[in-house]
Amino acid sequence: MSTTVPTVRYDGLDAAAIRQRTGATAVEILDSVGSVMDVAHARAAAGADAGLLVLAERQTAGRGRAGRPWHSPPGAGVYLAALLRPTVRPFSGAIAVRVGLALADAVVEAVPGASPWIKWPNDLMIANRKAAGVLCEARWSGPRQGWIAVGIGVNVRGPVPEEVKGTAIALAEVSPEAMRLGVLTALGPRLWRLADLPSALDEAERDAFRGRLWVAPGEEEAPVGVDGDGALLVPTPDGSLERRVMPT
């Protein structure tokens, strides 16, 4: 007796439809997983092509930078990992800045009324609260680059847990019509373009980041931008600029 395995869908769409909307080469939709990043790394190590998109309805061990947990309740947000195999090895800070800019532009397109800012190195802020986070992890093979897994978590529907309402926000608070598919459709094509860019940020990218740079209210030594490596530039009392590299 044969058993039919049900097609896993994401807001009503199957993997083929998501692939068409996002420009991914392959899409894997998971109901529940520890971390989409771990899945992306495993698939890449097994030879998956660039352009793989891993999506999950829920993460039980989602993580951000420095291993910090990422709240990932069922259906509340976009939890994705995208596999890039760059033709030129980018600076780690540069790729993180580029992903942040791509995400900010996608949110502007998908969520009317949203005014996203980028808190260096990896947070997307709306109304001075965190709406999304970015995590970039590279794996190398000797002097050659194997791949980069780009992890993105976006609070779309909420609800935001009571204990973090003062520091976190869902896109639906800005626009009740905000949808996960809208964010994915706007974001996907922007991510795949990042694999073919030079190692360092060019002046246009640095200007774009400067225009979206979030500064904490009341911050005395407000950063003024980033350099080509993606390092944050912060003024010092003597008039020089302190260069802060991407934390690990």
Computed structural class: alpha+beta
The radius of gyration computed from the alpha-carbon positions, rounded to a whole number of angstroms, is: 18 Å
Total number of beta strands: 10
Q: In CATH's first tier, which class applies?
A: Alpha Beta
Compute the average pLDDT.
90
Query: How many structural domains does the protein architecture include?
Result: 1
Strand count, sense and barrel status of the largest sheet are: 7 strands, mixed
Order of helices and strands: HEHEEHEEEEHHHEEE
Number of helices: 6
Note down, in words, how this protein is organized.
Helix 3 (92-110) packs antiparallel against helix 5 and helix 3 (92-110) crosses helix 6 (203-212). The strands form two sheets. This protein has a seven-stranded mixed β-sheet with strand order 1-2-3-7-6-5-4, sandwiched between helices. It has a three-stranded antiparallel β-sheet with strand order 8-9-10. Helix content is 26%, strand content 27%. The chain is globular and about 60 Å long. It has helices at residues 15-22, 36-45, 92-110, 171-174, 180-192, 203-212, and strands spanning 26-33, 52-59, 77-84, 117-119, 123-126, 129-141, 144-155, 225-226, 232-235, 241-244. It contains six helices and ten strands; from the N terminus they run H-E-H-E-E-H-E-E-E-E-H-H-H-E-E-E. The protein is of the alpha+beta class. It has a single domain (15-217), classed as Bira Bifunctional Protein, Domain 2 (BirA Bifunctional Protein, domain 2, 2-Layer Sandwich). Mean pLDDT is 90; it is low at 1-5.
